[in-house]
Amino acid sequence: MAHLVWLAIPALLLFTSCSDEDDSGRGRGGQRWSGGPAFGAAAVPVRAEPVIRGTITAFVETHARLEAERWVDVLARTTGLVTKITVEEGDRVVVGQVLARLDQEESKLRIRQVEVALEQARVGFKRTKELFERQLVSEEEYDAAKHHVQDIEVDLEEARFDFSHTVIRAPLAGLVMRRATEVGRLIRTNDQLFSLADVEPLLARIHIPEKRMRQVRVGQRAQLAVDSYSDRQFDATVRMINPGVDPESGTVKVTLEVPPSSQRLKPGMFASVYIITETHEDALVIPKKSLVLEGEGNQIFIYKENKESGMGKATRRKVEVGFADNEWLEVLSGISDTDRVITVGQEGLRPGTAVRLVGAGAVASGGRKGERDSTSASGRMGGDRNGQRGDGAGNRGLSGASVSDLEAIKGMQERMFGRFPDLKKAYEEQLKKDPELATNLGKWRAFLGQMREKGVLPARRGG
User: Fold this and answer.
1) Where are the domains of the chain?
2) Overall fold of domain 72-194
3) Is 279 helix (H, G, I), strand (E, B) or coil?
4) How many CB atoms are closer than 10 A to CB 249?
5) What is the pLDDT of residues 158-194, one digit of tens each?
6) Helix (H, G, I), strand (E, B), or coil: what is residue 297?
């Protein structure tokens, strides 16, 4: 990042120019600075983005594993040799569909044996009954013959039951999640054969702190994000809220219902869950990375263009912020939708510093309104109807690690590592775990926030 180089400055002028300036460029002594490069100083390269209007939401954030509406393990109800398997993992089945077949010869033979035994028992009972009516046998013998017939009838029902279960059928409609057997394997009663899941809808069971429960209600809208589809968000709704509070964790279980999503979402996926608690429409929204880390309160720099010189000037603004998420920030006061905020290169700037636009931010003023009208701050701030995760910046051109991002990170490191040796040590340790920390401006800012929480860096004053 380029720095201003002062060649020769009289003491009085130095004192005047170093005094605090307001947004008009006037110091306390009444001196006015034009904002152009002074004494040959180079303009600082920056990127700027237009302030946009869009929808931003407040939400309760948590995480969950997606679950099927119903999950059933299909078990063997009889013993037999697997002769045929008709489905594979991932197949969709309906209720009653044949999944597999077992060898039936043994079951048929068992049925025939029991039928013969039953015929013999009935003949014997008939003879005993005739003798009993002639009082030639006792009542005990008569009852024994009768019960023997009944026992064999039960055996026949059992044999027929076993035969019916040589054909394995689906107990529910859904997907085959697991096949746990092979053709030729001898299975026994209660061996697991398949796992089926009804995935329409999926469920997400989360636990919310008791103090947040007043913000959640049945039917409330939510959104899910999964790593497999990082460019999308998926809608969900709160289906039910457990009436009790877990005394150990102090949380309440909430079940969300996720409608069918063209098989993109699957049971077992890890999802970030955002239960939307409040929505602000037509809000002024800026990238969160535009906040200045140094100074009191929430501050940003506005890019003011000088049409005659083609250069610009950085103007500092204090802003009042509202809702925020990982990428976006609602501004309640301090800017308007005609402003352009400096998003890269703002660290180390001073009010009135000469700046020049570089990269994707260097667009003509006349083209900004159309871009702003065609975008909305959505993403985790609402999403669109198709579940697309909007980034709220149109053609921002700041994906990945840009040269200006690297310059911004390097410039901050040079200023801060010398003052805070423990920060450099913590940075090097974290860099081993996450190499993107050196190139991703968002991760670098998040790292600084963590260091403030741990006391490695001093907390912001007035922030």
Assistant:
1) 59-68+197-279, 72-194, 400-463
2) OB fold (Dihydrolipoamide Acetyltransferase, E2P) (2.40.50)
3) strand
4) 11
5) 999 999 999 999 999 999 999 999 999 999 999 999 9
6) coil
